[in-house]
Amino acid sequence: MTSEKEKMIYVHSAPVRVWHWINAFGFVLLILTGLQIRYAEMLNLMPLSDAISLHNYVGFAVIFDYLLWLVYYVGSGKVRIYIPDLRQVVTLAVKQVKYYGYGFFVGKPNPHAMTPDNKFNALQQQAYLMIMFVLLPAQMISGVFLWKIKGYSEYINLLGGIKVIDTIHVVLFFFFTTFILIHCYLATLGHTPLAHFKAMFTGYEEHH
Description:
The protein is mostly helical. It contains eight helices and two strands.
């Protein structure tokens, strides 16, 4: 008979878990302060000056956290878990879409078997690859430009002007807000609604 310990598989290392929760907490603060800054006349979560200061401080903390993530994953070679297998990506992605849209609700098993070296399914790989290497850097860079417009005016003008930079930052703000909500929902699709959340604290996923 398989013991509970034998069912558990260590997937999320301590550095990854620390990065994940710092990033998650930082994003929530950025969303709240961003809403206050963008809709200052409608919301009263905090004084506008405080919202701007907190947004800036947290923004730089998230940038630093991202750089730690980048050094850890690229330096250790673990970045390969984000790169999909082009020979199978379409087939695996279709299977995953069917699972999320139908299979999960009728009790079918997840077609992706998570392991430490293969944490993400084909859909996650494509999404996270785009987010971590394109969208998140774009959000951070546009945020830095908006933080000191005069200091970076040359680069801002080179990229089309302040309206373009502001539009990129705001559009990505709404994208990341939506992504976090979807991410939290998908995290409930484990063998129990809180299983994946628990795993991001303990590092262990239950192997089925």
